[in-house]
Every structure is written in structure tokens, then in C-alpha cells.
Amino acid sequence: MTIFEKSVKGRKGFKLPEGSVSFEGKDLPDHLIRTRKLALPELSELDVVRHYTELASKNYSVDKGFYPLGSCTMKYNPKLNEFLASLEGFTEIHPYQPVETVQGALQLMYELKEALCEITGMDEISLQPAAGAHGELTGMLIVRAYHLSRNDTKRNVALVPDSAHGTNPASAAMAGFEVVELKSTKDGLLDVEELKKHLNDRVAVLMLTNPNTLGLFEKDILEIAKLVHEAGALLYYDGANLNAIMGRFRPGDMGFDVVHLNLHKTFSTPHGMGGPGSGPVGVKQFLARFLPVPLVRKSKDGSYYLDYDLPESIGRMRSFYGNFSVLVKAYAYILTMGEDGLKRASEMAVLNANYLRKLLSKYFKVASERTCMHEFVVDGSEFVKKTGVRILDVAKRLLDYGVHAPTVYFPLIVHEAMMIEPTETESKQTLDQFAEIMGKIVDEAIKNPDLVKSAPHNTPVKRLDDVTATKNPIYRYQ
Ligand SMILES: *Cc1c(COP(=O)(O)O)cnc(C)c1O
């Protein structure tokens, strides 16, 4: 039932002192004055609390249960960081305030920038982009500005591996590049021979993520970087998932020139369903002059200021200075974890992924037998052939057991893929339980396939008709 259907005429959730406000709209122009009564639901405070509590209980979140959504790093975000971001000193400031009055906020941004430079091995960072894909676009525009600044106008090709996150080719195309796809080796790595064939004086950039979307470390990365640079192109690092490498190794040391991060995956901001994100972009010194303006800087007297004096900047990517509350959480996370803590988080993320990979290889083929990083991909094609149950069905059946499904049918190079990222914040018991549930579902798929094919059975919403939802979407309640 919607909140409008629960409305009872005349019911109220508040009481204002009589006559404390009187406003008849006299000072407003006629066309701004409402002619009809606003159709608001009429409910008591308790009605409203119950309504939203019920909705919240129908929702699934990482605070409710295991959420192994590959490539998304749905890890636990410490509530302490939420508390810190909600402090009045952070929430009650305005971006138009004179900089002398917001020195603390600028200091936080400056120090966060320094920490992220240290973590990524980059020299300068913009905190402005509001999401991963937004960071990619920013990075691609910087690549473009760099080549144009050298009058190297024919470089209009962006090379992207076939295993890449879909936002990579999309961002490159948005920045005006022609996207050329590179085939992976059968082990799921970038094919160096294939790369050599494609490198020429039209290539502007190679976009990579390492570990890649199969959760594998591109072991030839130093050679790849050398080849790309010798060909006059730049190397871009999709750092959306830094969870496997924080404190262990740095994109800057692997030869990358530009990197974006997803603070809302690795650095303590809950995400999913379109909440505020942050996709800072870091660059090596020779690209710093192209970053979006303004940059937060520190003057000799120790005060902080906003530097707009970058004549070659690609311009603004977003209003103001980024999603500030996300920056506060990332800063708090980095400080509370410390260097050792971040390193340990990566180690545990990788250990958890490998432990679960081993457990699940009892039931499924794993796309690569190699030790994985923070995530791994299950290749369900044999399972599908044997049982007639699809990986989508397995994903839906997991919901009945109170677990969020992993990412399915991605990366595209593995058929019937299931991409699993347990993250460092899950216990061994949770991983064991998940593997046990998977075992049960495999068993059901053999003995009672219809049960799995018609799942979910216990959720507030049953199986959706994906095709109709895509072809004939209904966005509003009618
Ligand atoms: C999540 C993700 C992105 C995109 O990030 P958004 O914030 O959703 O735009 C890009 N690349 C990889 C590898 C990702 O996992």
C-alpha cells in the first residue's frame, strides 16, 4: 500500500501553535501561487514511522546480510564515519562561504588528496567527480587535452579490453574517442600480442583495471606500460575497486598516468540505488595542469585556498568541490584504518575471495584456476548444460535464503558468469554459510529444477518479467 492509500482525511502528525505563522502569498507573483490544494497524504506520526519502517524492512542492504556483488565492493561501512560526516561543522557550511571561514573543510580535502596520492602513487588529485563513470570521463578529457596540447591531433582511439566494466568504453566514447576492443587471452588477461597489433600513432590511451574484472592481476603490466608509452599513448587505471591493492601496490608505480577511484566502494560510503558517490581523479605531474578547477592548495603561511589559476584545465566537471560528505567519510576511514589497517583490509579481502573460490569450486567451475585478488568469476556454463537451470535462476534462489545475489552475466567474456566479491568485512562463518547455501541450490537444481527456476518464493516481490520491464517500463504508480 502506498502512503497515499493510507491517508485518512483530517488526520495529522503535527500541531502548530495557533497563529504563529500567517502568510497569504501576497508578496508572490500570481503565477507562482498554488490554485489547488496540494495533494499530500494525511497521516499520524506513527503511521508514517510504520510505513517507512516497513519499506526499509523489505529492502536489502549490507547492514542486513551478505552482499557478494562482484565489482561493487559491498563491504561494511563503519557507522563512526557516518557520525563524523554528520557533525554540524561539516553539514552546516555552505560552498559560497569565504574560504577563511571554512579552513577546516579545505584542510580535510587537502589532506585527503595527499592520502589518496600516497595510496595511488599519483602527484595531484581532483576530488570533484561525483561517481566512478564521472571520474572516467574526467580522466578521458584530461587524456584528450594532453594530446591536443602537443598538437597530436590524430590520436582519437581508446583501447579497452573486452573484460572491462561497461562504463569504460562509454566514458571514452563520451569524451570523443573511437573505442577499440582488445580480446583477452583464454586465461582472462590482456593479450600483449593483441595489444602490440593495435598500438599505433592513432592510439590515445589504454584503459585498464588491475586486478581486472575477472579478479586477476595483470602480471605483464610493466611490459604493457612500456609498450603503451613507447607508442606515445597514455595508460588509464580504472581504480573503482581498490580493495585488493590498498597499501600493497600502487597504480603510479605500475606505470599508470591517470587513475580514478570510487570512494563509495572502497572508502566507506554506502552505495547502490544512486546514493551520493565520489570518483576522484589522480594524475602524474605532467598532467596536473589539465585537472578540473578549482584545486585545494596550501599556502606558505599554512592556510588553504582554492586555486582557479589553471589556464589549461579541462574546466569544471561538477558544481562546487565534490560530494563533501563522501570525502569526510573517506578521510575518516583512512585515518582510522591507518597505513597498516588499509593494507590488512586488502589482504583480508583477497584471502576471503580465495577461500570462497576454493569452497565454491566444489560445485562450479571457476573461470580461472589462478589465485584471485578481491573477487572471482564462476563459469556456470557446465552447470547450466547439466541441469537446465540458469545462473539467473541460482541468483534468484539465493534471495530465498536471505543472501543478495552476486553480479551475474558479467564480465561478458564468461558465459553464465557469476562474479563474487565477498570483501574483507565478512567472517569465515558467513562465507561457509554462503557456500553451504550454494551447495543446497545446486542440489535443488538437480532434484527439483522447477523450484529454482521459479524462485524467488520468499521475497516481497516475486520474479520480474525482465523483458516487459525493459520494453514497457512503468515508472510511476498509477
Ligand atoms: C563500479 C565501477 C565503475 C563505475 O562506477 P560508478 O560510480 O557506478 O559510476 C567503473 N569501473 C569499475 C571496474 C567498477 O566496478
Name some characteristics of this structure:
Aspartate Aminotransferase, domain 2; 478 residues; Aspartate Aminotransferase, domain 1; alpha/beta; binds pyridoxal-5'-phosphate; 16 helices; 37% helix; single chain; seven-stranded mixed sheet; 2 domains; four-stranded antiparallel sheet
Characterise this structure.
The model has no long low-confidence stretch (mean pLDDT 94). With 478 residues, the protein is α/β, with parallel strands linked by helices. It folds into two domains: 79-336, Aspartate Aminotransferase, domain 2 (3-Layer(aba) Sandwich), CATH 3.40.640.10; 339-470, Aspartate Aminotransferase, domain 1 (Alpha-Beta Complex), CATH 3.90.1150.10. It has a seven-stranded mixed beta sheet with strand order 1-7-6-5-4-2-3, with helices on both faces. Strands 10-11-13-12 form a four-stranded antiparallel beta sheet. It has a two-stranded antiparallel sheet with strand order 8-9. It has 16 helices and 13 strands. The two termini are 12 Å apart. The protein has helices spanning 45-58, 79-85, 88-91, 103-120, 132-149, 167-174, 192-198, 221-230, 251-254, 263-266, 324-360, 381-387, 391-400, 428-447, 449-453, 466-471; strands at residues 124-126, 157-161, 178-182, 203-208, 234-239, 258-261, 281-283, 295-298, 304-307, 365-366, 376-379, 407-408, 417-420. The longest helix is centred in the C-terminal third of the chain and has 37 residues, at 324-360. The structure holds pyridoxal-5'-phosphate. This is Probable glycine dehydrogenase (decarboxylating) subunit 2.
